[in-house]
């Protein structure tokens, strides 16, 4: 298994912070407060992307991480709106490095699988960047397991490998359990998973009529639009109330307890929202509670669709 560390060799924290909302629902002051709240509790991985808010997320995160260079892991992603060709990758990477103000990016992800550009061109370019010391680890996000394996074979031709994967994972998005987590485990790929709260659904706020990303962003409204997902969120809230813990804390702790997850990427629009997710760092779910939470959503069927053991 790839052991991710900071350049100063501190192991990656069990939770990371995702800066997707920087420049959107979070301004620079809010970002600074949340960054401080994270570093205060030992969070040392921060995630952004070329595409977040036209680079504003990278710019804001860059200012925050600059005094901590080498002490935190900074991950960004290639654009998700154009092919991962050599020219596009080099051009976007140069912009990301400039916005972040970093000579070396710890993790550089492909944000999605590109079915058009030959994998040799894409991963050969990433391998070159890595051999020049511009990136430490090659990552992939939103790849299916077969795409990871295919790309891994191509990486081997260039003497490198995919070391990190960033899939979505939460109580109502469990598809990764079927193929992606086993593939990553087999390949020794670290997994930094995103959306532990289902974009906010699992806080339970929508059952109370509150507003947020799911009522403002059609992509998220649709991603989490199925009635059974809202039913699972209500079940989680009831369980949380009975245990006197915020539902958000349970949701994040549930994702982080999966042994296939290296680090869970949390996020919020302010420190008050962030606190219940941070509290999950100190909550190890006992087996019975973990099983009760897991039972709130359907376990995805196995890849072979055969649930019989023989
Ligand atoms: N690779 C990818 O394709 C990809 C995709 C998505 C995310 N990511 C990464 O993963 C990170 C985390 O993802 P995510 O933002 O989807 O995580 P999430 O934890 O599922 O959702 C976070 C959102 O939930 C709401 N929320 C959080 N705490 C709350 C609380 N206590 N009470 C009420 N609402 C609360 C806030 O949104 P509202 O207040 O607006 O409702 C917040 O922005 C991102 O920042 C990004 O770095 C990557």
TrEMBL record:
<dbReference type="Pfam" id="PF00248">
    <property type="entry name" value="Aldo_ket_red"/>
</dbReference>
<feature type="domain" description="NADP-dependent oxidoreductase">
    <location>
        <begin position="14"/>
        <end position="296"/>
    </location>
</feature>
<dbReference type="InterPro" id="IPR050523">
    <property type="entry name" value="AKR_Detox_Biosynth"/>
</dbReference>
<dbReference type="InterPro" id="IPR018170">
    <property type="entry name" value="Aldo/ket_reductase_CS"/>
</dbReference>
<dbReference type="GO" id="GO:0016491">
    <property type="term" value="F:oxidoreductase activity"/>
</dbReference>
<keyword id="KW-0614">Plasmid</keyword>
<keyword id="KW-0560">Oxidoreductase</keyword>
<dbReference type="InterPro" id="IPR036812">
    <property type="entry name" value="NAD(P)_OxRdtase_dom_sf"/>
</dbReference>
<dbReference type="InterPro" id="IPR023210">
    <property type="entry name" value="NADP_OxRdtase_dom"/>
</dbReference>
<protein>
    <submittedName>
        <fullName>Aldo/keto reductase</fullName>
    </submittedName>
</protein>
<dbReference type="GO" id="GO:0005829">
    <property type="term" value="C:cytosol"/>
</dbReference>
């Amino acid at each position: 298994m790839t052991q991710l560390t900071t350049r100063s060799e501190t192991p990656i924290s069990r939770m990371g912070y995702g800066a997707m909302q920087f420049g959107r629902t979070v301004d620079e002051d809010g970002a600074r407060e949340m960054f401080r709240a994270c570093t205060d509790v030992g969070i040392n991985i921060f995630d952004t992307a070329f595409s977040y808010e036209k680079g504003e997320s990278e710019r804001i995160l860059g200012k925050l991480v600059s005094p901590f260079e080498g002490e935190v892991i900074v991950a960004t992603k290639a654009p998700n709106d154009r092919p991962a060709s050599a020219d596009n990758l080099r051009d976007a990477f140069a912009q990301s490095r400039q916005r972040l103000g970093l000579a070396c990016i710890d993790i550089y992800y492909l944000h999605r699988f590109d079915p058009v550009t030959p994998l040799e061109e894409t991963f050969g370019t990433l391998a070159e960047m890595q051999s020049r010391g511009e990136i430490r680890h090659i990552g992939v996000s939103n790849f299916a397991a077969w795409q990871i394996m295919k790309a891994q074979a191509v990486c081997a031709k260039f003497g490198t490998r995919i070391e990190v994967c960033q899939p979505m994972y939460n109580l109502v998005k469990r598809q990764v359990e079927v193929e992606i987590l086993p593939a990553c485990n087999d390949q020794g790929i670290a997994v930094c998973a995103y959306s532990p709260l289902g974009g906010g659904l699992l806080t339970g706020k929508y059952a109370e009529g509150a507003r947020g990303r799911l009522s403002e962003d059609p992509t998220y409204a649709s991603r989490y639009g199925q009635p059974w997902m809202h039913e699972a969120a209500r079940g989680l809230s009831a369980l949380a109330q009975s245990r006197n813990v915020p539902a958000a804390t349970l949701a994040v702790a549930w994702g982080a307890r999966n042994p296939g997850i290296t680090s869970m990427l949390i996020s919020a629009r302010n420190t008050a929202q962030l606190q219940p997710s941070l509290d999950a760092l100190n909550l190890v779910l006992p087996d019975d509670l973990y099983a009760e939470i897991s039972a709130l959503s359907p376990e995805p069927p196995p890849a072979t669709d055969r649930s019989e053991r023989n």
